[in-house]
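Notes from the 1:1 (GR / supervisor)

We went over the backlog. Supervisor wanted to see one worked example end to end before approving the batch request, so GR pasted a single chain during the call. The sequence is below; no edits were made to it. Supervisor asked that the structure be written out right there so they could see what the output format looks like.
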Amino acid sequence: LEHIECNAACDYAPVIMVNWEFFDNQTPESARALVDSLRGEQPPTGSRSGIPPCTFRETARILAGYPDQRPGATDGVAGPASLAGLRAAEQHSTDGGAR
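Structure output shown during the call:
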C-alpha cells in the first residue's frame, strides 16, 4: 500500500489503484468494501473497465509493453468526466472547435 499525491485521475478523485485498475470516487466506506472484496473469493471490478484487476503476472506483461489480453480490457478510452473540459471548450469555441 502506497500513498501518492497524484495518480493523474483528478476528475475521478479520490481513486484507489489495484494492479493498474482504477477504483474511482472512493469514500472510506467504499475503500473498506474494496479491501474486503479483494480478500474474498469474488474479485471486485474496476470502475472504469468493469473487469477485475490484473494478476501480478498480467500487470508485469502490460508494463513490459504486451497488450492487455483480459476479456473486456480496453485501450484506455477516456470517460465522461475526463472529456468534460474538452466538450465545454468545443461548445464555447470561436473557431468551430478546431484543435
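Supervisor's comment: The longest helix spans residues 28-39.
Batch request approved.
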